[in-house]
């Protein structure tokens, strides 16, 4: 290329690499450092009475049982400006019968049996709390599981960095987070008799001496002599350090953290938490002093181990409390003090807009404006069918004055076969459709075509899930059975089912109770029991595997070896006698009874169109990774369920919402927002769609293994079949169902291949687009057509002013136009959906 435009292009090549990489990193944010609670928290300002709408008291009832019981209350004020204030220390407390309980601040202890009411008041607002006291003078002995194990958790003794590590610490090992109470009791009382636990002189027990710093301890001092944790251990040792009769003690069935939400006005604001455990015998207990507290964003909201949240910098945090095997959390929003804000007056498209707006109003964030027609067309074409619109399609859409043209465009795109191909590709990633040593090409191809048939015929997602999970027969005759050929080991299969169909990574619970979620080893192996009776045998064709229900085989728990009964995650133990356990599981899993199926799938769909999930990563639903907008996620899941799991209905809801139609241009208030959908995100186009789009705009065809010339990259069936381009741009290898399989991170190889590889350069030469453009009479018209083809917009006046003279004066205008084409295909405007 020797034209002036070619010289200009070559000059730009050096900087284009950095431009492309800059585009690929757009939107990435560095993690914020964690901050400790200030040693001297800001003195709290008195809460205002003006604007107070209501007060709420947590928990809503005081239920005291035995002399050991107590209950601390939290009083939260809700204000007309959306803020909340902790009114606990400033409220008045009036008991109808003050003889029943003793009160110290907002903490109540039993005195005599009976029932009464408590009136809590602040300003002109009040709330009434029922109070019940039973067995006020009884003092039951402390239990190892209910009273002592929580001490080790609260003091962080049984964490992975201390005695809970696989090899323990300094010769002493506890089960991580207490998943093996019997083993912990044995190690405490039977290893080193009379030393770790000295029942004759409890204060001389090593476990107590080290905890108070009386003797050297690697972990340092954990508590003081005379505090509740010390007293509990001392009393238990004094009683002979007994183990529990598990048949006689209640178990924790749930834990509640109060308040559930708070919007804090300015740095230094404080909010006390209270934690209540509910037991299988119907009783409850204030376990605030035994829970372990954490914050996922201490810069915005740090929490002390006494459950006091202190506001920091503007932001959002999820504060968690762990007790027993339960982890629960609350959402905290911190705003700059006295921030004045008026949410813009705008119409909403549907329920999605209303729920996103409600969150943005709490955050004091104004959304970006709705994008123009051309931007919307390119965005929705790429998202729904994986291609940019043709010039004719774009101009017809932008020229229409139909007020519902965006909704009608979505309807038209949903009818195209390319829509189902996009989701076939996504499901092929989840189901790991690929050839392996054990999975033949024929099995893989039949499996893929089964998926194509189901999705192209709009099979509801619940029906497809049930057909997969309950599949029996040969992998040739019933391709859905390949689900059980791809992964043949029971425990990895269990984990894959949870991750694919419920968006959960339960792998941690294989070895111990999950440290950051609700799942225990019992849950894990109870769920795995559904897959313990899968039979597999060779078919007549050696490449075929026959899957069947063997009717025998049990799942043993690794601690103690007991046989585990099949149990739904977070639900009941079903009757599986004489039934195929997988059919029982499938019926529950893909139904409204399972709250995670609809939510996890709706979240995946949302992430495809918005660039980030409401839960992110999309397959990591857990308590410690909360939804950014739980109300929105619930609404999407409900809509998906009510539509009988209709994918297209959910897609239309999203694509016709104002939230999806937002511009990527940010305003002052939403500049830093990355997860609340105040603006559209700039998203790199996925590898397969990017290659298809390059072929589309250059009017060229590709040839892939097993497919005819002209097939799209998104149609490649085998995860093991790829090209240099697809591998370089992060196509999933389908080795696992993890969302991390798709690589969207920028690399130098990507930039270099686009500029110097054979994909772009050869396609420009082969496609004949330049020859067609040269038939247009003027350079301006050629540029306009090229821009419409690549960017779905016309060139700006500035772009025309710079490029038109260069093209007009070029010795070889076709070659110059080819250089411009190359430059446009290498630009981030082309490589990204925006």
Structure keywords:
834 residues; 4-stranded mixed sheet; globular
Provide a descriptive summary of the structure in words.
The chain is α+β, with helices and mostly antiparallel strands and 834 residues long. 36% of the residues lie in helices and 15% in strands. Strand 4 (74-79) and strand 5 (84-86) form a beta hairpin. Helix 12 (461-469) packs antiparallel against helix 16. It is globular and about 100 Å long.
**What gyration radius follows from the Cα positions, in whole Å?**
31 Å
Mass-distribution shape: globular
Number of helices: 28
Helix proportion = 25-40%
Distance N to C terminus? 32 Å
Uncertain runs: 1-42
Physical arrangement of strands within the biggest beta sheet: 2-10-9-6
Average of per-residue pLDDT values: 91
What is the beta-strand fraction? 15-25%
What structural class results from the helix and strand content?
alpha+beta
Main beta sheet: strand number and arrangement? Answer: 4 strands, mixed
Please give the oligomerization state of what you see: single chain
Strand tally: 27
Helices and strands in order:
Elements: H1 4-24, E1 52-58, E2 62-65, E3 71-72, E4 74-79, E5 84-86, E6 92-95, E7 101-104, E8 107-110, E9 114-122, E10 125-134, H2 144-154, H3 181-189, H4 206-211, H5 228-238, E11 252-258, E12 261-265, E13 270-272, E14 274-279, E15 284-286, E16 292-295, E17 301-303, E18 308-311, E19 315-323, E20 326-335, H6 351-363, H7 373-385, H8 391-399, H9 405-414, H10 417-430, H11 441-456, H12 461-469, E21 473-474, H13 483-486, H14 490-502, H15 521-528, E22 534-538, E23 545-549, E24 555-556, E25 563-564, H16 581-589, H17 595-610, H18 630-642, H19 647-655, E26 683-684, H20 687-698, H21 724-728, H22 748-756, H23 758-767, H24 769-773, H25 779-791, H26 797-809, H27 813-825, H28 828-831, E27 832-833
Parallel strand pairs: 2-10, 12-20
Antiparallel strand pairs: 1-4, 3-8, 4-5, 6-9, 7-8, 9-10, 11-14, 13-18, 14-15, 16-19, 17-18, 19-20, 21-23, 22-23, 24-25, 26-27
């Amino acid at each position: 290329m020797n034209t002036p435009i070619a010289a200009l292009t070559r000059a730009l090549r050096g900087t284009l690499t950095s431009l492309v990489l800059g585009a690929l990193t757009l939107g990435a944010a560095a993690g914020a450092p964690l901050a400790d609670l200030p040693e001297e928290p800001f003195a709290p300002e008195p809460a205002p009475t003006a604007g107070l709408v209501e007060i709420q008291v947590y928990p809503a009832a005081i239920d005291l049982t035995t002399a050991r019981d107590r209950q601390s209350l939290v009083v939260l004020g809700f204000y007309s400006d959306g803020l909340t204030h902790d009114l606990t220390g400033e409220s008045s407390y009036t008991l109808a019968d003050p003889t029943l309980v003793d009160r110290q601040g907002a903490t109540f202890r039993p005195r005599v049996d009976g029932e009464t009411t408590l009136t809590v008041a602040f300003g002109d607002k009040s709330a009434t709390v029922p109070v019940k006291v039973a067995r006020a003078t009884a003092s039951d002995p402390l239990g190892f599981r209910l009273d002592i194990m929580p001490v080790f958790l609260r003091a962080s003794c049984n964490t992975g960095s201390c005695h809970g590590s696989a090899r323990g610490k300094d010769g002493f090992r506890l089960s991580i987070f207490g998943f093996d109470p019997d083993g912990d009791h044995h190690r405490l009382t039977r290893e080193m008799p009379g030393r770790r636990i000295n029942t004759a002189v409890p204060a001389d027990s090593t476990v107590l001496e080290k905890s108070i710093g009386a003797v050297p301890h690697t972990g340092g001092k954990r508590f003081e002599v005379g505090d509740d944790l010390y007293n509990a251990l001392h009393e238990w040792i004094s009683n002979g350090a007994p183990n529990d009769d598990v048949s006689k003690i209640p178990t924790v069935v749930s834990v509640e953290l109060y308040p559930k939400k708070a919007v804090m006005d300015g740095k230094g604001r404080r909010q006390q938490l209270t934690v209540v455990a509910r037991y299988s015998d119907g009783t409850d207990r204030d376990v605030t002093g035994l829970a372990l507290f954490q914050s996922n964003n201490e810069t915005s909201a740090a929490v002390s181990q006494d459950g006091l949240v202190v506001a920091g910098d503007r932001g959002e945090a999820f504060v968690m409390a762990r007790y027993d095997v339960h982890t629960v959390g609350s959402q905290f929003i911190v705003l700059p003090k006295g921030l004045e804000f008026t949410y813009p007056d705008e119409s909403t498209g549907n329920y999605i807009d209303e729920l996103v707006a409600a969150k943005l109003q709490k955050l004091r964030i104004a959304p970006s404006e709705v994008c123009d027609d051309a931007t919307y067309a390119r965005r929705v074409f790429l998202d729904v069918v994986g291609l940019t619109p043709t010039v004719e399609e774009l101009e017809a859409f932008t020229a229409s004055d139909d007020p519902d043209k965006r909704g009608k465009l979505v309807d038209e795109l949903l009818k195209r076969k390319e829509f189902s191909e996009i989701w076939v590709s996504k499901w092929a990633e989840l189901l790991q459709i690929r050839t392996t040593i054990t999975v033949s090409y024929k099995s893989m191809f039949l499996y893929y075509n089964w998926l194509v048939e189901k999705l192209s015929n709009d099979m509801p997602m619940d029906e497809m899930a049930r057909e997969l999970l309950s599949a029996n027969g040969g992998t040739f005759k019933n391709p859905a059975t390949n689900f059980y050929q791809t992964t043949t080991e029971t425990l990895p299969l269990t984990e894959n089912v949870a991750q694919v169909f419920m968006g959960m990574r339960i792998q941690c619970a294989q070895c111990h109770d999950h440290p950051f979620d609700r799942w225990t080893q019992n849950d894990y192996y109870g769920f795995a029991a559904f897959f313990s009776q899968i039979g597999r045998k060779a078919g007549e064709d050696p490449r075929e595997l026959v899957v069947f229900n063997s009717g025998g085989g049990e799942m043993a728990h690794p601690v103690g070896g007991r046989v585990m009964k099949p149990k739904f995650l977070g639900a009941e133990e079903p009757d599986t006698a004489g039934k195929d356990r997988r059919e029982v599981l499938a019926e529950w899993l893909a139904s409204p009874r399972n709250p995670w199926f609809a939510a996890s799938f709706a979240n995946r769909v949302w992430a495809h169109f918005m660039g980030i999930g409401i839960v992110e990563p999309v397959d990591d639903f857990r308590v410690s990774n909360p939804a950014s907008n739980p109300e929105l996620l619930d609404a999407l899941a409900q809509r998906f369920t009510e539509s009988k799991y209709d994918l297209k209905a959910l897609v239309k809801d999203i694509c016709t919402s104002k939230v999806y139609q937002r511009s990527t241009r940010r305003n002052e208030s939403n500049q830093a927002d990355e997860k609340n959908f105040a603006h559209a995100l700039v998203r790199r186009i996925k590898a397969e769609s990017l290659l298809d789009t390059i072929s589309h705009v250059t009017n060229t065809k590709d040839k892939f293994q097993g497919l005819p010339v002209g097939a799209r990259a998104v149609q490649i069936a085998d995860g093991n079949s790829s090209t240099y381009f697809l591998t370089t741009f992060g196509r999933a290898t389908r080795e696992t169902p993890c969302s991390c399989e798709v690589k969207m991170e920028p690399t130098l190889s990507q930039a270099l291949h686009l500029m110097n590889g054979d994909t772009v350069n050869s396609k420009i030469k082969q496609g004949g687009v330049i020859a067609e453009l040269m038939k247009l009479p003027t350079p301006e018209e050629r540029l306009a057509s090229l821009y419409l083809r690549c960017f779905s917009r016309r060139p700006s006046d500035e772009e025309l002013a710079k490029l038109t003279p260069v093209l007009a004066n070029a010795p070889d205008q076709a070659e110059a136009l080819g250089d411009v084409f190359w430059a446009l295909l290498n630009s981030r405007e082309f490589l990204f959906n925006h």
